[in-house]
Amino acid sequence: MSSNRLEVMRHLQDFVRDALPSLLKTEDTYWQPSDFLPDMSQPDAFDQIRELQQAARELPDDLLAVLVGDMITEEALPTYSVWLHSYEGIDKGGEPRGPWGEWARKWTAEENRHGDVLNRYLYLTGRVNMREVEATIQNLISDGMDIKTGSDPYKAFAYTSFQEIATQVSHKNVAVRAASLGDRRLARLCSHVASDENRHAKAYKLFFEKILEVDPSDALLSFQEMMKSKVTMPAMYMREKGKQIGESFRKFADVAERTGVYTRLHYVDILQGLVRSWNIEALTQLTPAAEHAQQFLCSLPERYRKVAERFENVSKELHSFSWLNGGESTPVAQPS
Fold first, then answer.
1. 111 classed as catalytic
2. What is the pLDDT of residue 268?
3. Residue 323 annotated as catalytic
């Protein structure tokens, strides 16, 4: 990373320190996975489990496969935490502890609940082969990820702004579908996960907004490079036992597309929202290269939208997942 970008990270430390209270929950307002799951200390614990399982029976295999993929993505948190702590300007957990490191640690602690609550819910449904799921999680963590950010914190914050919104969209849409199918417990817990993701997205968007204020030309160049390589999801290497790297992610993404949980058009909408939120079009006093990046970024959403609209809404390919107990993902009409 250039010395200039490291200096910008240091320059923004005071801002981050002051902003943290509004970006993070306090201990007395945390939710915990046990808030949404049967209480095994209660006499009616098994009745609670039967109620959970009865509601979960109404979930189609396609939606269940997407939920499992979302959970596996969340469970690879060790990879994401190490990645975030690898950037210069973010302390590595020693002393002195700076505000960037505090954000990274507390973000990790909040995110840790997501995989926990989804994992326990799926285990209790009885519809999921948890050993196969656990093997996929282990593979994903051991295989790592390559999201093309290098050591550039500018790219990292542009990426996390996008990716946190994408996960928020996915969890929110699963919640909506679950509610429509009568699984109020799943709807409630996914809504809380989505709310966390939305708050985290606001934080990363704010960090990048401040970088744009201090170093607009280099920030735009990083954003352009990020979008030229396309924003790949952190679970892009997802694979079931015995499968090739990325094979299970491709199936998962296909099913997410046709169920409407996360689609190509969502990708376009997120990009357009970031370009507008950061007011990219209005930035001035840019270098010639940054002006070119500005034009590229402002025109990109419409170009992507035209491409996305050419694709069929429904994939006809059948997908089977080792994660589901005897289940096969079948083509379904995309919801309106």
1. yes
2. 96
3. no
